[in-house]
Structure formats: C-alpha cells, structure tokens
C-alpha cells in the first residue's frame, strides 16, 4: 500500500525520522530498535506509471506486485540520508 508522510507511522517514519535527526543535529546513526528490517521504496511517479501501464495492457485475474526488487535496511537508509544531508 502506498504510504506518505501523513499516514501516521510505518514506512513514513523510515524516512521522516532520520531526516529530522539530521536537521536537528542528532546522532546520525541512531536508530530505534534493531534497524534491521528491510524496506523497498518506490517513487509515486513510478507507481502511477505502473498503474497506467497495467490499466492499458493487463487483463489477467492474478495480482501484480509493483516494486523495484531492491530493498534496504532501515539503518542503511538512515546512513544514506545522513550522508546526503551532509
């Protein structure tokens, strides 16, 4: 299910929290919990393109999983965001 910064938790926290830490000067490698869960991220524009493609060309009864097939741990994501934020 697509999620965003207003969804109240879950995947939104995976990006929002590390960004807030970087902006506040908090320890950039701090993670709550193990930070071992893996998540796959997909830009909303790519998701929309996939939906349009499927609506035009897909008629099977089985479900379709739209994704990148590349995942990242929450810790790796936090470290990447900290590096980009400087």
Largest sheet: 2 strands, antiparallel
* Rg measurement, Å: 16 Å
Into which percent range does the helicity of residues fall?
Answer: 40-55%
What is the strand arrangement across the widest sheet?
1-2
User: Total helix count?
Assistant: 3
Strand content: under 5%
The overall pLDDT average reads 75
* Global morphology: elongated
The helix/strand order is HEHEH
Low-confidence stretches: 1-5
Overview features:
86 residues, mainly alpha, two-stranded antiparallel ribbon, 5% strand, elongated
Per-chain topology:
Elements: H1 11-24, E1 38-39, H2 44-57, E2 72-73, H3 74-85
Antiparallel strand pairs: 1-2
Helix pairs in contact: 1-3
Can you give a write-up of this model?
It is built from three helices and two strands; from the N terminus they run αβαβα. Residues 1-5 have low confidence and may be disordered. The chain has one domain. Strands 1-2 form a two-stranded antiparallel ribbon. The chain has 86 residues and is mainly alpha-helical. Helix 1 (11-24) runs parallel beside helix 3. The two termini are 31 Å apart.
